[in-house]
């Protein structure tokens, strides 16, 4: 039987960098030019199957980027196994904001959290303000994963989530029932969805 794991993933970044579009492309392979701003946070799920047939299920919390929702963010990144911090390659200030989020994660999130810095909107290359060299240098200095994407064309989207799945600790945790907190997902190490309960049924995954 192939192994199955479940992880909580949170998206952070300034408003309008394309977080929701990135998730929509990853989950439904769709793009909408006129998406409204996220209010609070949105919840979606998607699975990634690795080469060895291990299945990684992401519980994805797509947070709002507006400043008035910033105080809610710890609810969503608390106990997250991984985070994608998104900036817009055509807007230099969005990288500065991403760095602020990364510092906050480094201070307050789980110390083992996997963080990926993601430069979105590569389809707008003529308007690029953030070079690949600048972003990758910062990511290397901070020990982060890094990649660029275009939610509009789909370029790089599945690759960055697959890379995160490969980076996560795919080992079975001690048997326990996943708990649903304020942001509805599990923390710590991945939940092994193949673990059987005493009745022979899969443990609830709190999807």
Automatic annotation (TrEMBL):
Its main location: membrane. The keyword GTP-binding applies. One of its GO terms (cellular component) is endosome. It is a lipid-anchor. Coiled coil: none annotated. It comes from the Eukaryota. It holds the Pfam family Ras. Keywords: Cell membrane, GTP-binding, Lipoprotein, Membrane, Nucleotide-binding, Prenylation, Protein transport, Transport. Residues 194-207 have a biased composition (Polar residues). GO terms for molecular function: GTP binding; GTPase activity. Gene3D superfamilies: P-loop containing nucleotide triphosphate hydrolases. InterPro entries: P-loop_NTPase, Small_GTP-bd, Small_GTPase. Residues 171-207 are annotated as: Disordered. This is GTP-binding protein RAB5. It comes from Neolentinus lepideus HHB14362 ss-1.
């Amino acid at each position: 039987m192939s192994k199955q794991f479940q992880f909580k993933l949170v998206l952070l970044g300034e408003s309008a960098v394309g977080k929701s579009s990135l998730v929509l492309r990853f989950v439904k392979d769709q793009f909408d030019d006129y998406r409204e701003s996220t209010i609070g946070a949105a919840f979606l799920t998607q699975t990634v199957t690795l080469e060895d047939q291990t299945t990684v299920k992401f519980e994805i919390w797509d947070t709002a980027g507006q400043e008035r929702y910033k105080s809610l963010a710890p609810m969503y990144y608390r106990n997250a196994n991984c985070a994608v911090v998104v900036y817009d390659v055509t807007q230099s200030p969005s990288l500065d904001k991403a760095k602020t989020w990364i510092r906050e994660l480094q201070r307050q999130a789980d110390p083992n959290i996997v963080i990926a810095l993601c430069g979105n909107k590569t389809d707008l290359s003529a308007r690029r303000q953030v070079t690949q060299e600048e972003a990758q240098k910062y990511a290397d200095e901070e020990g982060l994963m890094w990649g660029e994407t275009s939610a509009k064309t789909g370029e790089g989207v599945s690759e960055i989530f697959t890379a995160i799945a490969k980076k996560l600790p795919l080992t079975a945790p001690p048997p326990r029932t996943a708990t649903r907190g304020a942001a509805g997902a599990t923390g710590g190490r991945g939940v092994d969805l193949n673990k059987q309960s005493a009745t022979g049924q899969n443990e609830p995954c709190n999807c």
